[in-house]
Amino acid sequence: MSNEDIISITPSTKWVPKNPSFIYRILNIPSTIKKIIFPDSIVYEKSQREIEPNYLYTDIPRYGLVNYKKYTNNKISTTKYPSLILFPFQNLLLQLKIYANIYFLFAATLNTIPLLEAYSGWKAFLPIGIIMIFESIKDFFEDYRRRKNDKKVNKALVYVFDGSKKRFRKMEWENVLVGDFIHLSINETIPADILLMRSSDVEGTVYVETSNLDGESNLKEKKVLGSCIEYCGETEHVFNPSFLNISIFCSQPDKDLNKISGKVLYSQEKFDIIKRENVIYRGCQIKNTTFIEGIVLYTGKDTKALLNNGIVKHKRSSLDSSTNKYTLICIGILICMCTFETIFSIVFQSEYSRKQQPGLDVPFVLYYNRTMIVKILLTILEFILDYQVLVPLSLYITIEFVKVALSYFMTKDINLYYEESDKSMEVKTLNIPEELGQIKYVLSDKTGTLTENKMIFRGCHINGIDYSKDCVKVLTKCMDNETEVYRSEKLMKELTEKVHDENSPVYHFLINMAICNTVVVTKKREDTIERGYVQGNTLQVANAVFYNHGNDVNEETIDGRRNDDAIVEISSISHSSEDHETGSVSSFPDKIRTSVRRFSRKVSNNIKHNRKKLRYAIKGILDNDSRSKIAIKRKNDVYEGESPDELCLVKGAKALGFTMLKRHRCSIDLSVSGYGYLSVNITKILKFDSNRKRMSVISLQKGKIYLYTKGADDSIMNNLCKTFSSSEEGKKIIKESKKSLKEFSSCGRRTLCLAYRIMTFEELNKFNDDIDDIESNCIEDKDKELLSLYNEIEKDLILLGVVSIEDRLQDGVPETIVALKNAGIHVWVLTGDKYETALNVARSCSLFDINIKQVEINCLEDLESIPVRIPCPYNVILPSSGVKLLKDGEENVIRILKNASSVLCYRMTPSDKAIITQTVMKKFKSKVLSIGDGANDVPMITSANVGVGLGGQEGMQAVMAADYSLGRFKFLRNLLLIHGQWCYYRITESLLYLFYKNLLYCFVLFWYNFYNGVSTMCPYDPYYSMLYPIIFSGLQPLMYGILDQNYSAKELYNNPEIYKKNLENDLYSMKLFVLNVLDAIWQSLAIFYCTYFAYDDTTIDMWSFGYCLLTSIFFVNTFHLCLLIKNWTWILFICNISFFFVHVMYFILYTIFVSASTQIIDTPIYVGVYSTMSFTFWAVVILSTITALMPRFYIKLLIKRYPLLELTDKDVKIIKLKLSKSFNRFRSQ
């Protein structure tokens, strides 16, 4: 029997629940309506929701569960268009917010009215239709990419307890329901807000990292419910919660991270109160805990993370708003021109009719209208058709292509590529590249955005001696990985003499570093659930199934070798049905069976080198049915701590010879270099809190009681022993320590002071008795009582020294921030970290200069001590409590923040970040860019004008919600100062040129009509008129908008000051728009009257005259564009030259082959040929071109020679102010 004959198939362990059938959905409609009208919830308070665990209902399909019907699912969406079905309608409504689109649809409709006899007819809808379809495709593509990223998150897997199978099964996040009992392993991300029921720690303690949620890098301690602690601990068997018949009452979804309440009922008398420490929110990561298990309370959009994120908004640039305004002005010009010429047309016809003698033919074809109103209306509509291109349709086509092209160039910039993560820049929103050139405020996260969140021990200062000058970098294997540490060679030599001298400050300093922490030494954590389980003759691991065919197949081949391919086979067939657990080959078609066999053999060959170990491991498991998981001996001990600071000090102590080996409940085992093993007693730990700003441990050593303390410099210095502080030696140590503190802080490093004191046994006994009293009694202000007790014991300290810790910045961060500040951009850092941490990073990253004044705003009272006029420059520090002042619009706060060079905001929640972003945009009237890398940054990213996400260690939520995605913070310099400058310059120049081009086209026709009986008869060829804005003069401005540069990349990178010119929107101001309108008027007058006087009193026909006008317009437009181009490339050169020939050849070929079938009045046969061969024709074109462009040419020449002549909007305001003052002074005299 061959291997293929014995292969069997068992489905994957992946659990894909059934969806309700169509009939079930139809039958369930009445109950759904009833539920809406008559809610049947047994929760008595509207402020609560009741949850019953899903594992209690094993005979009900998941779509029939009460929790499925009552609460939202766990599927998330960051798309701008929630439904693909409604996408066309929603997108159409969005596009109709653009005034130009409404106008184009109106103009296209006019072309279909037979009475107006328009040439284009229904074909007039094609251009606007193409634009709107292109815009829809672009929006759909953007939304599709967001949908793909959402799918990656929604398809992530988590273990959910299946009550019917009595075991955990892997399920996709989007299928998780409220009431599910889920299992998560170390370093996994929480898929929903869950209530802790069990953990691997026997005391029910769980550590989680919440940086995705609140930006804080320190670990948070969570606790299992009190009644469930007995179920905690690592066991060999899967925990079965079916016996827990509980009901959970919890508060309704709320975005407040500190607000959660409820209770768990076990019986009528037994219950637990749900506290904040019992709940872990979506987006957090499990740390220092092998596994946790809990019940889902909130899913999807009801979770704290998503409630704080808000919705993804449709973003439009300020240039779009200005373009809308200029479009309205163009429409106003159009209405004025049409109204003016309609009046003149009616007057002209009336006057001509009265002067005309009876019997003479009227040389005009006039429509007979019953009323004057109808005549006026028709005339206005005909003039609108003549001037319909005055509002440039080509502008919107061109600009959309320019934006897409510029976005594409960004993604291909090698300077925005991050090699380590193989990540290039991504553009997720295509319609706001010009906003990158107008950013005035950059709001940045700290952890993971500016820093690597890696703490490095950089040296120390002990007993008045500085040991940081001669530090050298060493790599120490601190069990988990190689760690970079800086240690002093001088200190290492002294340690050989004072390594265990109890009277030496160096000894106590290092003991303090090694034991004053909560770090534990553990084995490398590995959740045994990932090792799979045995069912029958198979070992199921994750979504793969391993088979043992040893009982059915002879393991020996003819030549005596083992046939290992027959022993191990693998199947990864996934079933979507939750009711089928087994199957066989015979139940599958031959093609599938053959495919599975081939795949099985391939995998078997790949593991052939390790087949013996695998075979014996599986065989051993199958021989012992009582074992349900693979037990693997754990190796590689690791350090685990609540904060990176603690780990840094422990690893620093190891580098100096004091290695932590193991932590017991009441002691710590150390290995001291040159001495041996040392067991240090730990009597009590006084944990760190933000009020005390310090941490302490009490240790009993050789009959003495030591209190070791570490903390912020002010919290230690203010509690030193007076005897020590007043002694000569103490004064010297304090002085030198403060000097080191200043030096370390000036380098932007974190600093901690270490101190100790010797306690008496009476003090210790009294301290323990007081703590027992506080813990045993139900005191309302328990925390305050403990704080007071800790402060009382942490006094009369003796200063040991100072440690220097570097919070490693990302490469290039200081240089980038300095460049941004030189560019006139205000940089704000918003972090959830504490004050000291935030301030140290602000200094190290060059956000704060130590020589610049700092202003702190905590409350309204602080404003009284701040002078009305603060000398610039200055920096501002704003805590979370100051956000309310900003939100309430406190004028003094806004004034201080607006003029600040940089701002540091600490203890910020996600909603605080969003409030600050929105307030800066609203009150400061400036463009804001927000950048971050975690889920806690999503609210400010979506609120800002431009959101940038970094693909860091905190997940992909920020990237998914952002407009742009970068690999590192330093790339922001290239993105803003180079690409931002180019995008803003190119798009603004293109917009102004396109407005000018179409205005010129219409103004020439306007002057012509006064010499043509003020009629609506147009001399322009109708087909050329339709094609001119898009074809004949469309590609040149498109290439100009894509390729032109006002500065090279090197100039922009080395001279950030250039960026300042963009901040006042000087390149797209009303002044420039009016100047372009005036330029178009002048050029139209030059073109028309040069042509008119040249052909005056001749027999030239209308089409020949129109051809001359169109050629002059084309030449003027082209050479006008050539004057604008600052960076000539071969593409721009060929593009402009080639269309000269295209223009001329079109008219020659068109007038040769045109016939009466085109229905053009007085068909222009051979007009192009004869005109092109005429000397007068070319003389008129050249003369009109020179005359039209002369003012622009000389103005450009003068400004280039004398730059002072170029006035900005700011200069104009100053001039107006001075003129106003002079005028008022003159009037007063």
Automatic annotation (TrEMBL):
Binding site for ATP: 445-447, 646, 688, 710, 750, 831-833, 907, 913, 936-937
Superkingdom of this protein's organism: Eukaryota
Predominant place of localization: membrane
Pfam entry (one): Cation_ATPase
Domain P-type ATPase C-terminal: 959-1201
Domain called P-type ATPase N-terminal: residue spans: 69-121
Cofactor: Mg(2+)
Membrane protein topology class: Multi-pass membrane protein
Catalytic site: 445
PANTHER family in the cross-refs: PHOSPHOLIPID-TRANSPORTING ATPASE (PTHR24092:SF215), PROBABLE PHOSPHOLIPID-TRANSPORTING ATPASE (PTHR24092)
Family: Belongs to the cation transport ATPase (P-type) (TC 3.A.3) family. Type IV subfamily.
Entry EC no(s): 7.6.2.1
Protein name listed in UniProt: Phospholipid-transporting ATPase
Keywords for the protein's UniProt record, in alphabetical order: ATP-binding, Magnesium, Membrane, Metal-binding, Nucleotide-binding, Translocase, Transmembrane, Transmembrane helix
Any one biological process term the GO annotation gives: phospholipid translocation
Spans through the membrane: 326-347, 991-1011, 1023-1043, 1100-1123, 1130-1153, 1165-1190
Domain (P-type ATPase A): residue spans on this chain: 164-304
